[in-house]
Write a structure and sequence with these properties.
There is one protein chain. This protein is mostly helical. α39 runs parallel beside α41 (866-879). 66% of the residues lie in helices and 4% in strands. The protein has a 5-stranded parallel beta sheet, sandwiched between helices. Strands 6-8-7 form a 3-stranded antiparallel beta sheet.
């Protein structure tokens, strides 16, 4: 009996409208969320039917639960194959332009070094656009995304950000009841839902009335009220559970749904039951050839009845044909059948799959073989298949899956490796796993694995493993430990020149550079370069040249640039992507330090492109490059949220996760402080995390009126970093300015309420002294403080003057700050200009104040800096300043949209919650809120709601 479709008209309308928009060139993404069995698949089947009737191209793909064993890009590989059948010419044209797409179509394009992950992602996006046409959009459904592998999750993120005007609607379904706190899909779903192009469609359980409608559609008649009440109660409104209960057709129903599900199978012929049992251990669906082969391996004598058994399984709606596969009509049915198997039966069926896959590897992937062998258990086969699956994941530039496969292999090592002569050494596998962990942004895990590799390596290999461990320790800023490892490596390896010794010396020198042991570093670098050049080790030479450039940068910037260019040439010659990224990161950092924002953006872009090509996006230098790109965009005035991959509990997003905090605070994101606080576990081991997250949190707290907490946080970070780095670290200038601004805000409030601010003024003196002492500290010959440092020193002086009071806070000190940020820091220049307008107003120069305020407001609005725009408008309102953007006298009538926004503000919703309710972005909501505050002359959200209530502009709850 087929599943009827009822009671989801609202969700169908949402998806139908999204499909219509896609057909007109406005692509969209819909996340269909609900519990298992609630009706997600039925909904997408109905939408697919509607779409096909309207002339759309429809492709439905699925993610598969393989447990620990992932299969990279599975739903998109299925989609590419289906689209190749539907539109072979368009697919061939895209593949010709994007050869990496061939990896999804079974035509691997070479080694991992030659693969191009960015090209693959672009190829997928272009493939979707090539098949779709205006008026005839493509509907791509990805079902069961809670089982998606990490690479498929990355593709989904990429498509959401990449789609522009393609006639494509992407519908993604997932189970909400599977999303435990650490589930990898949970942060991805949250991230995608925040994108303005994404709609979330929630499927709730049936109400009693909807359940009655469903029962009538299913059975053809209204069930007795008692039966309906029982089914509604026991199913919890779940469509699938209810269908199973209704279709049993008897009063003596089993006490659990699993019994009901198994009862559907137990009435079938024994041969059919056996086929269903074999299918159940493969997951929700399995290819028909593989299922047939497994059935033959289970019962060689049953081949003659296999066709009939398969037909009966399909005919009784236990299995269904789905995209060339045989699938359980409901995933829970397969799970219930598998759960009822005895341990011996389960092992035998997994062994049947192992036999089938070993006899004919074309029937499945190494990952599938590993999954079945693991449960057979056939540990030697599971180990070798896991290693092969890791190789496949490496070729596809999927480091998360590669690491998972390698960790499975390592867990099996002691039990299975002895039966496999000729297997690569365990320390080599551990070294590979450490590299995969580093590429997947799990740097602490990389250190653990690399340390284990040292422990199991023999005397010949141990020095190499120590060098690798040292490099992983450098990535987590444990430089003293890294130096110890490289020292031990050098002491235990032959002194004769070799590529291994060149790398050991280069690694050792890098630690010495990081520790500011200049003379020692210079000596070791000279030896590293001599050895590397003598044996032709271009990668090691490139790495040493990069460290040499860092060493001489303070004294001779031109020479440092030349060394980096030379190092880059060497790295590119030998295809050493890791060293190439390190060089580009250092070049980008140098450009940023001298205020060359276009140069920073260009170099960061080059590095990011290379990182994507080589699967190193999540490596330490890949994340550093992404961070510099985000930082340059923010400083240039682009506050657009930067896409960030969801992080696992032990994943470290490096500079990228820190750099985006600046813009989050500038935009006034509701969760900015929480995001900063969430990084506190990194503060002790990562000084940069303490600096940026702590400073941004203090800045946001001060804006929220939590002045004392902001100052205390600034002092805490200053104390920590003074001990960890040096008492006059340059980041302390910025922190001091943030602390002085919080004290100045609090002192201004004190003065307005008649309180003496002397205590706060006194608290500001050490902060100014720190900033002045740092800016004046002696530097090496030829080096000077960069434009950002000079600008923040000017800002610290201006904030100190504002703290001292209006008599001291003259326009001149603020004009100096405005000019200092003119090197390209658009947001902080606008922020300083706002304070300049305030100082001019205090000085009585209303004309100049109005001009500066209007300029600051125009910049704030253009950037989307909502809190700053609101502050400037408040100043113009309070000061009755005129100019572009100034609150208009009598402009109290709210637009319809502003009234809607204010109604939701009155309900206590945040900007993001309001945006989701009105299908607009949180940034747009922020603009509406700012306009409402200006029109009502209110200083905050609560006052605006009160004023609107009193004037009858919105109703009372």
């Amino acid at each position: 009996m087929s599943t009827p479709f009822v009671a989801r008209s609202g969700q169908v309308d949402v998806l139908r409208d999204a499909l219509a928009r896609a057909g007109s060139g406005v692509p969209g993404v819909a996340l269909v969320a609900g519990d298992a069995g609630v009706g997600k698949s039925a909904l997408v089947r109905e939408v697919a039917r509607v779409a096909q009737e309207a002339g759309a191209t429809v492709v439905v793909t699925h993610c598969v639960d393989l447990g620990e064993i992932g299969l990279p890009y599975l739903p998109f590989a299925d989609a590419a194959a289906r689209l190749r059948d539907l539109a072979p010419e368009q697919v061939a044209a895209v593949e010709a332009d994007r050869p990496a797409l061939g990896t999804l179509l079974g035509r691997g394009s070479g080694s991992a070094e030659e693969a191009d992950r960015l090209q693959l992602f672009d190829g997928i996006a272009e493939l979707l656009g090539a098949v779709a046409r205006p008026g005839a959009p493509l509907l791509l459904v990805v079902e069961d995304a809670h089982w998606a592998d990490a690479s498929s999750r990355d593709v989904l993120r990429f498509l959401v950000s990449r789609l522009r005007d393609e006639p494509v609607l992407l519908v993604v379904t997932y189970r909400t009841d599977d999303l435990h706190r650490r589930h990898p899909w949970r942060p991805v779903a949250a991230e995608l839902a925040r994108h303005p192009r994404v709609q979330r469609v929630e499927l709730a359980p049936f109400t009693p009335d909807e359940m009655r409608e469903f029962a009538i559609a299913l059975t053809g008649a209204a069930p007795p009220p008692r039966t309906l009440r029982s089914v509604t109660r026991r199913s919890g409104g779940n469509a699938y559970f209810a269908q199973e209960l209704l279709e049993t057709g008897c009063d003596e129903l089993p006490g659990s749904l699993a019994d009901v599900l198994r009862a559907r199978v137990e009435v079938l012929d024994p041969a059919v039951q056996q086929v269903v049992r074999v299918a159940s251990v493969a997951g929700r669906r399995v290819s028909e050839p593989l299922l047939r082969a497994a059935c033959r391996a289970t019962d060689p004598q049953g081949a003659a009845t296999l066709d009939a058994a398969l037909r009966d399984a399909v005919g009784h709606h236990v299995l269904a044909v789905e995209d060339g596969h045989l699938a359980f009509r409901h995933a829970l049915l397969g799970e219930a059948v598998a759960a009822d198997l005895l341990p011996g039966e389960l092992s035998a069926l997994h062994r049947a799959y192992v036999t089938a896959l070993r006899e004919d590897p074309t029937l499945g992937s190494p990952a599938e073989l590993a999954a079945h062998a693991l449960h057979a258990p056939d540990l030697p086969t599971a180990l070798t298949a896991s290693l092969a699956a890791a190789d496949a994941a490496h070729t596809r530039l999927a480091p998360q899956e590669e690491l998972r496969h390698l960790e499975v292999a390592l867990r099996l090592w002691d039990a299975a490796a002895g039966a496999l002569p000729g297997l690569e050494p365990q320390d080599a596998v551990l070294d590979r796993a450490a590299g995969a962990a580093a590429a997947a942004a799990r740097r602490d895990r990389a250190v653990q694995l690399a340390r284990s590799a040292v422990g199991v390596a023999d005397d010949d290999a141990r020095p190499r493993r120590r060098v690798a461990l040292a490099r992983h320790l450098q990535a987590v800023e444990r430089i003293d430990d890294a130096l110890e490892q490289s020292t031990l490596a050098l002491d235990s390896m032959p002194s004769t020149p070799s590529a291994g010794r060149a790398w050991a010396l280069a690694t050792h020198a890098r630690s010495l550079v990081y520790l500011d042991r200049t003379l020692d570093a210079f000596e070791v670098l000279q030896e590293a370069l001599t050895v590397a050049r003598g044996v032709g080790a271009l990668s090691a030479e490139s790495d040493a040249l990069t460290s040499f450039a860092i060493l001489v940068a303070d004294d001779d910037a031109a020479r440092a640039d030349a060394l980096l260019e030379e190092a880059l040439e060497r790295a590119r010659t030998v295809g050493d992507a890791g060293t190439e990224l390190r060089i580009l990161m250092n070049m980008a950092a140098t450009r940023y330090e001298v205020g060359d924002l276009p140069g920073t953006t260009r170099l960061a872009g080059l590095g990011l492109a290379r990182a994507r090509e080589t699967g190193l996006t999540h490596s330490d230098f890949g994340l550093e490059l992404a961070g510099y790109g985000a930082l340059a965009s923010y400083v240039s005035g682009d506050l657009t949220p930067v896409a960030q991959p969801a992080r696992g509990p032990d994943e470290d997003g490096g500079l990228l996760d820190l750099a985006v905090l600046y813009a989050a605070v500038a935009r006034g994101d509701d969760d900015a402080v929480a995001r900063c606080r969430a990084l506190e576990p990194r503060w002790e081991r990562d000084g940069l995390a303490a600096l940026i997250a702590g400073g941004c949190a203090a800045d946001a707290l001060a804006r929220a009126g939590e002045h004392d907490e902001a100052v205390a946080l600034v002092q805490r970070v200053l104390d920590q970093l003074s001990a960890a780095w040096s008492p006059q670290f340059f980041g302390g200038i910025w922190l001091s300015a943030i602390g002085l601004a919080a004290l100045a805000d609090a002192a201004t409030q004190d003065r307005r309420h008649g309180r003496d601010p002397a205590e706060r003024v006194a608290a500001g003196e050490p902060l100014l002294a720190r900033a002045e002492g740092t800016i004046a500290r002696p530097l090496p010959p030829g080096r000077s403080v960069g434009p950002e440092g000079r600008a923040w020193a000017a800002r610290a002086r201006a904030e100190h003057a504002r703290l001292a009071g209006p008599a001291v806070s003259t326009p001149d000190v603020w004009r100096t700050a405005v000019d200092a940020f003119g090197y390209g820091h658009r947001y902080e220049q606008a922020r300083s200009r706002f304070r300049l307008a305030e100082a001019l107003l205090e000085a009585g120069d209303r004309t100049a104040a109005a001009g500066e305020a209007a300029t600051a407001l125009a910049d704030a609005d253009a950037m989307g800096a909502a809190p700053l725009a609101a502050a400037v408008r408040d100043l113009m309102r309070r000061g009755r300043l005129t100019g572009a953007g100034a609150p208009a006298a009598g402009g109290e009538v709210l637009t319809a949209r502003e009234a809607e926004v204010l109604e939701l503000v009155a309900q206590g919703l945040s900007n993001n919650q309001i945006g989701r309710a009105l299908f607009i972005s949180g940034k747009t909501v922020s603009v509406h809120v700012s306009n409402v505050l200006a029109k009502l002359g209110a200083s905050g959200r609560a006052e605006a709601v009160d004023v609107a209530h009193r004037r009858g502009l919105i109703g009372r709850a």
